[in-house]
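Duplicate of earlier report; Transporter substrate-binding domain-containing protein input re-posted below.
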Amino acid sequence: MTKPSFPRLSPPSRRAALALLAAALTLPAAFSAKAGSLDEIKKRGLIVATEDDFRPFEFVKDGKPTGFDNELIEDLRKYAPFEIKQQILPWTGILAGVSTGKYDVAITAAIITKERKKSLDFTSPIADATHYYVKRKDDKSISGIKDLSGKTVGVQAGSALLGRLPELASMLEKEGGKLGKVVEYTSYPEAYQDLALGRVDYVVNTIINIKALVAEKPNVFAVGEPVSGKSYPAWAVAKGNTELVEFLNGFIAKEKETGRFAELQKKWFGEAFPDLPVMFEPEF
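Output:
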């Protein structure tokens, strides 16, 4: 897959703001210990990692973390009999940090995949994450899957969406086409910026994220079609940390029972997902 040949830097103001926020919320090095048992967590607190810019799940607005997962974290602070210690950081360092014990849990929309399940365990799914493409609204050359043949696609580096591009490649092959150049980005806002500028032809992301993008900028972007089979995001913990998974699933179940989960889904996603599986075994 081809690496980008042009810079991938966020605007200086955004980098500075996120750096300040991360510094304020970053834990002392002493807390970066191995992920512990639930008993250990009760003593020292739960170390939570969240993303800095993944709308509408987690993002920073007016210097404060907000979004679906961040609202759930506030509920978790009331539910848990221990302190919640949050770190906000770029996506690329989150799952590796959880698998090695630097963080106890990734409270973010981590898509459940076979590869990830080798080193991580997941909670119950929190939403639908079927992959779609998004294009520029004024791009008349793309009206369906077959039109993506040979065109340049943007996707986040290290993401499950990158790993499932072969599904799209198969769809294109059936139409007599082929997957074009793949450009990997550190974050999706960078990919969307390049899409708007015409540096890539389309971007692949989950339907929730794409709907949020189009709702925010309806004159710039348009939702395409699905480019994957069923997929679900969930929160991730280190492999074998069964007690913590059970605790977090208990919290999620309570949020669902009270109607709070559906309320937040409607607020941030525009719809609720009442038929999410309690457990999910991915095909890919």
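Residues 1-33 have pLDDT under 50 and may be disordered.

Merging into the original ticket.
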